Amino acid sequence: MSLNSTPLANRTHIGFFGKRNSGKSSLVNAVTSQELSVVSDTPGTTTDPGGKTMELLPIGPVVIIDTPGFDDEGALGELRIKKTREVLNRIDAAVLVVDSEVGLLEGDRELLEVFEKRKIPCIVAFNKSDLHIEPDASDINVPRISVSALRKTGIGELKELMGQVIGEGNRDKAFAGDLVETGDLVILVIPIDEAAPKGRIILPQQLAIRDLLEAGALVLSVKDTELRFALDTIGKKPKLVITDSQAFGEVSRMVPADIHLTSFSVLMARYNGFLETAVESIKAIDSLKPGDRILISEACTHHRQCGDIGSVKIPAWLNKHLGFTPELDFSSGREFPEDLSRYKAVIHCGGCMINEREMQFRKNCAIHQGVPFINYGILIAYMNNILERSLEVLKKEF
Fold it and tell me: Taking residues 128-142, what's their average pLDDT?
């Protein structure tokens, strides 16, 4: 995919970290060749983490994130540092910017320990090399390089090093193409209702179409209202039907039992690496009692409308399944509480607007606190008594 067509969640996220006045923002601007960050001699100029896309070979499209200095001071500084910590939950790699005159300080070493603990590939960039000699750092076991953001020296070499370090763990993932063979027919059921984004289709649908086409499959996209007509007239038996989870129950009644059926949300959970956890957690729904509290979390920040799946449909389905509605909290976008101790379960969307690392962070928050972590698609399939059928096409993975 090209830079402009690659969804944000599918781009490699690279965070730039460092103490105030280490030249971090200047280095970000030099690397991106864009005035992404405000640069000033006054320490603490960078406020919130900001991101900009660029092409970085051999990886492809990436997001460069500039963060506030992690040694910021005062109440506002604490908020900035909190934002910096949140960036750690979603980055795939890190560049630690160090002032060559000062060298590695205790805070820098603490960050390196955090990167190592979280298995985040890291590079140390000694900045201001035009003014100072690179300090001794023979005791750290990470790639390092001398650069000058001011003189623009070492920038090309830094980009190459970033590509090498990050590229080692950067691999393409299959969304649905590995489930079919060349010539197989796949029907995608895409409801077009008031909740559907105007003029476009959502990321899981885009991923499915692209991946299936690359696998040589024949792809037919229909609305749920046209599915029965399509099944009756196409003259070729589909290998697989993939539906929007909201239509799971209705679609399952239309699609013959000998045709594989799953949902975009189920495949998105697989793509983001938490499908197995969601399946293992689903039985927790039946143990809920009146007064129990659950968190319904979405990665996007869309305007909630009448019939919204997270705030309207799922609560209604839970009420029908359980005979009561649990106490509900909602989160969206980057908001996700790390302390989940008050919840009996987390019900999360497929996570198409965040990257796999942030999705894994959320899943691990729940697992480490003993809180079941359930996916929208798995929940809806379970409540429609078609969970086993929705996983049949993925049986080799269970």
Answer: 81
pLDDT of residue 152 exceeding 70: yes
Query: Could you give the C-alpha distances from 185 to 189, 201, 257, in angstroms and in order?
Result: 13, 20, 16
CA distance 51 to 36: 8
Q: Which among 140, 106, 114, 108 is positioned nearest to 127, based on CA atoms?
A: 108
Answer whether 375's CB lies under 8 Å from 278's CB: yes
Alpha carbon distance 143, 121 (integer Å): 9
The CA distances from residue 207 to 54, 169, 199, 266, in Å, are: 21, 21, 17, 13
From CA 41, how far away is CA 23, in angstroms rounded?
9
Sign of CA dihedral 218, 220, 221, 225: negative
**CA separation for the pair 146, 154 (Å, rounded):** 7
- The yes-or-no verdict on residue 197 having pLDDT over 80 is no
The pTM score is 0.75
Residue 243: per-residue pLDDT: 97
The larger pLDDT score, comparing residue 299 to residue 200, is at 299
Q: What is the rounded distance in angstroms from the CA atom of residue 355 to the CA atom of residue 192?
A: 26
| pLDDT tens, position by position, 66-97 | 887 776 554 444 655 666 677 888 888 999 99
Q: Which of 332, 319, 265 is nearest to 288 (CA)?
A: 319
Tokens of 165: 């370090």
Mean pLDDT to the nearest integer, 317-329? 96
Q: How far apart are CA 226 and CA 237, in angstroms?
A: 16
pLDDT reported for residue 342: 96
Q: Which residue has the tokens 């796949």?
A: 186
pLDDT at residue number 59: 76
Q: Order of strands, edge to edge, in the sheet holding 373-375? A: 327-332, 293-298, 345-348, 373-375
φ and ψ of 372, to 5 deg:
-55, 140
